[in-house]
Amino acid sequence: MVLDNKSRSKQDIEDLMVTFNRGYTKGHAYKMSGYDLMNLQSSNHQGINIGKVIGKKNGRLVLELTNELNQNDGIRIGKDLGCHVNFLYDKKGKLTSHMPAGSVCEIQGPKQAKVGDTILKTTSVLVYEKVEKRIKETNRQIQLNASISCDGVGSPLICRIYDQNIEVNVTSKDVASQAQNRALDEVMIKKQFNKTKDSYACFASIDVDIPSNIFFTISSVNELRRNALEMFKSKKLKKQPIKEIDYVYKPLVSKTDRNIYEVMTPDKKMDTKDLWVCEMDQTKGNITSLRGSVLPHLGDTMIIDGMNVTNSWAVAALLEMGYKQIVLSDENKLENIHDIMYAFKERYGFDAPVLVCVYQHRRLMTMNHCIINTALKDGKRKNCSLCRQFEFKLKGKDKKSVICFGDRECHLCLYDEVLNDNIEQIRNLKTYGIKNFKAVFLNESKQEILKVIKRIENISN
Predict the structure, then answer these.
(1) What is the pTM of this model?
(2) Is residue 214 classed exposed, middle or buried when 0-12, 13-18 and 19+ CB atoms within 10 A define those classes?
(3) Which run of H or of E encompasses 262?
(4) Among 66, 86, 262, 444, which is least packed, fewest CB within 10 Å?
(5) What is the pLDDT of residues 253-284, one digit of tens each?
């Protein structure tokens, strides 16, 4: 509706509400935050309120409706109960398929439902039918151009169909005869060529250049249109050979050779000249910048992280861009890492200057929405830093927990509570030609951090 510049009616809005949603907001496009950005009350589909349970009768629930209810609608009763309305009865117990707003009806619903429970319509059979009908009636088409010509009696019709990249020419099987009554004209040709409702294409323009005294049957014109469209489709879908270009860049051996340790908490300064430590800093309660020549995105730096590097070509491409060391993706398994290192050395003659993370609580998600600030403050994320002052965990319905921690740009990051300690794998990784390693410290004490760093240094040196 909005795309067509049409106003939404009350019915349009109700139709939207019964399509799956957790509550509509203006979202990030309008810089919403807190409760204006996300519904924190329930992860369920919200639906629309259509009434309440007012009683029980003959094993059925008696509902008082404020909105219509139809057979096969889906409803939620109270907080967690739900069902499809397979059988719908009026207040006299007679089966029906529709009950209007303001009426009392009966349904076969969950026995646990209580009098006073609200009824939410979560799926609408009428909306489903409307969508299905629209899908069947809607046929997306590409726009083509056509030109139809004929030299005269005894000559065929010639059809040319084209777009910006492809052109086909098709000739009719029949030839023109002398018109006895009504001659073939431009109006008739355009009428027949515009009969493409069921086709993949329609015509943006049709040029006709024929003499005024020729005759073709309508079936001959239609056959020409169908053959031309089929030929164009075949040519359009034909796979074109991919032209391969040799990648001739040869990287130089990197002189950067360091382990990196990312310390997320700002009160655990790791002041040592022998280690390269990237620290999250905090000033006046606000998270500011990342210290050290390491970036989790493209930029002016020596070591690049966060690029999801999973092959040797990506390593070479980043070296060509000027980076000196590349952190490999956490998704790589040992065999993948072996293949990357082998392929790189086979191609360039030296070991790829990469780092592998061997110690971390793996980051699972980064959100622009901060549930901590929303739940405990005002949702505006100004002068907060609650995630740095206290430790927060988010527990899911599966009973598993994740650690909540804000990054330097005040995005809330969710970390796996389970620690990935793969330091012992350094011995294998060194045989692949890997010299440098990364560790991320989230909630460890300074003593624990120093102990882990010592383990990595002892094995990697």
Answers:
(1) 0.63
(2) buried
(3) strand 260-263
(4) 86
(5) 888 788 888 887 655 555 544 445 554 433 33
